Amino acid sequence: HLPRLHVEPDLVAGAPLTLGKEQSLYLAAVLRKSVGDEVVLFNGRDGAWLCRITADSKKSVGLDVVDRIAAQTPPSDLWYGFAPLKSERLDYMVQKAVEMGVGTIQPVVTQFTQNHRVKTERLQANAIEAAEQCEVLVVPSIAAEVSLGQLLDGWPTQHGDRKLLFADEGAASSSPVVALEQLRGQRVGLLVGPEGGFSDKERTKLHGLPFVVPISLGPRILRADTAAVAGLAAIQAIIGD
Ligand code: SAM
């Protein structure tokens, strides 16, 4: 396994490239890579490229772009909305969402949301790190935080015919399978609530909207981060990306 890093510049065969301070330090000091060692770079546009280190200073690692080893994949269409949790669990949720193949990560502020100060840059950094680790070639985009009301009012305009799967521990059936099988081939998003769940008012509103499909993830109350992984896994397994 070669180290994989996300970079911004275009990746073109034969072109030299210099990494920034942080990535250089990581490669040269943490991974102890030196001249002649190979690394894989991707930028979300040009696929994955095998690169060879030509200069190994801790401040600036230079590389030659050698060979394209994977074609660019299209971005995922899967949307994931969540009420921001406290920092550590938030990091975990972003990491798992990337592993589960999400294309857009959308923080949604609900009535019982405890963390109102989401640091988008931190979420973005986590998403990049997760994409590097799980060999995703497009880093999911992190959308600007919205309130639940704004999200629902704007849904038909912004999402067209996309269905919003609402993870609802009180949903009628205790299995998501039937609901998800009916949505095969359709564009979907998953919405998961905060530590304290959705309020009764919010649940009533969600249940009354034509584009919302409540789904249960089993008879137990899952932590919000677990519900996200379970919901995304069920969507990927039954509907696909
Ligand atoms: N107090 C715990 C925590 O700290 O995470 C549990 C919170 S649970 C109420 C958070 C969210 O996970 C809910 O709003 C819902 O979206 C989702 N959830 C949890 N269990 C679920 C289930 N069995 N079915 C569907 N969604 C579930």
Automatic annotation (TrEMBL):
A biological process term (GO) from this entry: rRNA base methylation
Location of the protein in the cell: Cytoplasm
UniProt keyword terms in alphabetical order: Cytoplasm, Methyltransferase, rRNA processing, S-adenosyl-L-methionine, Transferase
The protein's enzyme class: transferase
InterPro entries for the chain: Alpha/beta_knot_MTases (IPR029028), PUA-like_sf (IPR015947), RsmE (IPR006700), RsmE_MTase_dom (IPR046886), RsmE_PUA-like (IPR046887), tRNA_m1G_MTases_N (IPR029026)
PANTHER family the record matches: 16S RRNA (URACIL(1498)-N(3))-METHYLTRANSFERASE, RIBOSOMAL RNA SMALL SUBUNIT METHYLTRANSFERASE E
Function comment: Specifically methylates the N3 position of the uracil ring of uridine 1498 (m3U1498) in 16S rRNA. Acts on the fully assembled 30S ribosomal subunit.
Name of this chain's protein: Ribosomal RNA small subunit methyltransferase E
Lineage summary: Bacteria, Pseudomonadati, Pseudomonadota, Alphaproteobacteria, Hyphomicrobiales
